[in-house]
């Protein structure tokens, strides 16, 4: 059986490499500069998986939206089938997940629990936190390679089943699906191969089966692409996890993850996956007006705990 070994990667070199593009010397506005460098920006993301644009003059949320649409070459996506609380602003720009400042958001590829996900993401730092609050990244290709083979092979063989219960503790189904119509929810579920059951008038449970890994459509590289570690009941910190299971029962947990055949995932395997993420994670110190562009299949993102006011926005396509 494989043992999880220390991962020998020089992450310090990643932090200081070509992926940070300091544009503070540019005299044009952020939008004007982006319009004249679209091909170059996309080449940076295509080559490296992400790019941090630093020093641009950005004056509004609307300008950020236009910048992303200019770079992505298409309108931004609406965020439906949500898994976390956030506020919608104009033009499909959203606040990042609004969990309390003392909570860490684990590494994840956006919407990897779904059969539809954004290929590109853009983050905009409006107000950096006084301390902490960075958006750590990890290379999904390296995560795939470094997960012990006995764990990786079982996940690849069986896939992941995501189970969600809406409304009691987690987000209400009306917010997740962005509608008050049960008919529209059911249509969305059928269209997206999501099993659903109304346990009561306001209690919806869904199950969705997804692969644990994926092949990037452009690079052809294999990536670890799931949120089993994020959904699994063991991801709840401290005594809260056991207390929640005991009070409402494991079948009514707001979210949980199983192997695709419905069998339990060993919490020790989830812990090893999280250890791989921790060892491969690196981050940049947010500065005001930073824009971070990601290939959502090649890189995961998360959030550090923080102190002070923090405002980071996101758009996807």
Automatic annotation (TrEMBL):
Q: Which UniProt keywords apply?
A: Antibiotic biosynthesis, Oxidoreductase
Per UniProt, residues of the TauD/TfdA-like domain are: 24-316
**What organism is recorded for this protein?**
Pseudoalteromonas aurantia 208
State whether keyword Lyase applies: no
Cofactor entry:
Fe(2+)
What's the name of the protein?
A: TauD/TfdA-like domain-containing protein
């Amino acid at each position: 059986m494989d043992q999880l070994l220390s991962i020998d990667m020089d992450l310090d070199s990643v932090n200081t490499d070509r992926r940070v593009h300091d544009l503070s010397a540019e005299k044009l506005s952020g939008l004007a500069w982006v319009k004249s460098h679209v091909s170059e920006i996309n080449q940076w993301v295509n080559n490296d998986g992400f790019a941090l644009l630093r020093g641009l003059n950005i004056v509004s949320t609307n300008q950020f939206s236009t910048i992303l649409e200019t770079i992505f070459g298409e309108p931004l996506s609406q965020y439906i089938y949500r898994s976390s609380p956030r506020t919608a602003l104009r033009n499909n720009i959203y606040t990042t997940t609004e969990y309390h400042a003392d909570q860490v958001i684990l590494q994840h590829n956006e919407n990897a629990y779904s059969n539809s996900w954004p290929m590109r993401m853009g983050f905009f730092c409006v107000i950096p936190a006084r301390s902490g609050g960075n958006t750590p990244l990890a290379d999904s290709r390296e995560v795939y390679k470094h997960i012990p083979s006995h764990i990786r092979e079982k996940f690849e063989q069986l896939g992941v089943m995501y189970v969600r219960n809406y409304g009691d503790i987690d987000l209400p189904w009306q917010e997740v699906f962005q509608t008050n119509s049960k008919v529209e929810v059911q249509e969305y579920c059928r269209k997206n191969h999501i099993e659903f059951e109304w346990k009561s008038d306001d209690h919806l449970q869904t199950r969705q089966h997804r692969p644990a890994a994926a092949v990037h459509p452009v690079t052809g590289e294999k990536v670890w692409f799931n949120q089993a570690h994020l959904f699994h009941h063991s991801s709840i910190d401290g005594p809260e996890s056991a207390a929640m299971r005991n009070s409402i029962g494991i079948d009514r947990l707001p979210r949980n993850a199983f192997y695709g055949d419905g069998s339990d995932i060993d919490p020790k395997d989830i812990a090893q996956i999280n250890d791989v993420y921790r060892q491969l994670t690196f981050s940049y110190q947010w500065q005001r007006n930073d824009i971070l562009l990601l290939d959502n299949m090649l890189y995961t993102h998360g959030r550090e705990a923080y102190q002070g006011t923090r405002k980071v926005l996101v758009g996807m396509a």
